[in-house]
């Protein structure tokens, strides 16, 4: 893989990330509600799903997912319903629970939220199925190319997630004492907004 191809891929990923998506809004929500460090479990879940999508794209399996429209649609709407449920629950219980509360089960839940949101995001599936293979050279070893492109995507996506999470966590700490209920409501709003974005995205569009 030449530097020119890798750089073109990097620019493509940056353009892909420039508008906050469902995973970024989820990261904002969880960082505001639980703090930045616990919300890193959300980022880890998102990046874990991305890693599997990259592997599937490299092996040529992602196109099979897109071909199963009915199954993919059901899974996507289940993810939308899950995010809406979490958002409504957060708004209903605004101000009742300590925002710093966390633990083993809580972190597992945050990881699952990040994983599911990324896994059922049609935009991510289309990117890996349609654009990712364009940067692979069939005449060169595929494993090393997939590794380089995959690591590049993970680093860029992880940086964006950490930026959003750190900013939301910083704001949450400073407003926590006086505006806990409003922070929780905003957190729930971000969850619902993530669900809306997810519902509007179609697997057949780019």
Layout of helices and strands:
Elements: H1 3-17, H2 22-34, H3 36-59, H4 62-67, H5 69-92, H6 104-119, H7 122-131, H8 142-200
Helix pairs in contact: 1-8, 2-3, 2-6, 2-8, 3-6, 3-7, 3-8, 5-8
The radius of gyration is: 18 Å
Class per helix and strand makeup? mainly alpha
Assembly state of the chains shown: single chain
Total of helices: 8
| Averaged pLDDT | 76
Globally, the shape reads globular
Give the tally of β-strands.
0
Q: What share of the residues does DSSP label as strand, in percent?
A: under 5%
Task: Characterise the protein shown here.
This protein has helices at 3-17, 22-34, 36-59, 62-67, 69-92, 104-119, 122-131, 142-200. It has one domain (23-200). With 206 residues, it is mainly alpha-helical. The chain is globular. Residues 97-105 have low confidence and may be disordered. 81% of the residues lie in helices and 0% in strands.
């Amino acid at each position: 893989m030449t530097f020119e191809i890798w750089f073109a891929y990097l620019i493509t990923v940056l353009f892909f990330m420039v508008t906050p998506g469902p995973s970024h809004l989820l990261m904002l929500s969880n960082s505001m509600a639980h703090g930045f460090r616990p919300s890193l479990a959300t980022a880890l879940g998102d990046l874990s799903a991305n890693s599997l999508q990259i592997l599937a794209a490299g092996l040529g399996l992602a196109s099979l997912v897109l071909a199963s429209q009915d199954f993919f649609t059901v899974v996507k709407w289940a993810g939308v319903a899950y995010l809406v449920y979490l958002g409504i629950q957060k708004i209903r219980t605004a101000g009742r629970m300590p925002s710093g509360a966390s633990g083993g089960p809580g972190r597992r839940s945050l990881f699952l939220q990040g994983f599911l949101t990324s896994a059922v995001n049609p935009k991510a599936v289309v990117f890996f199925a349609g654009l990712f293979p364009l940067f692979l050279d069939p005449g060169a070893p595929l494993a090393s190319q997939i590794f380089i492109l995959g690591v590049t995507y993970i680093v860029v996506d992880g940086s964006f997630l950490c930026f959003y999470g750190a900013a939301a966590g910083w704001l949450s700490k400073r407003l926590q004492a006086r505006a806990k209920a409003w922070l929780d409501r905003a957190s729930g709003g971000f969850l619902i907004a993530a669900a809306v974005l997810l519902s509007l995205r179609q697997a057949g569009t780019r």
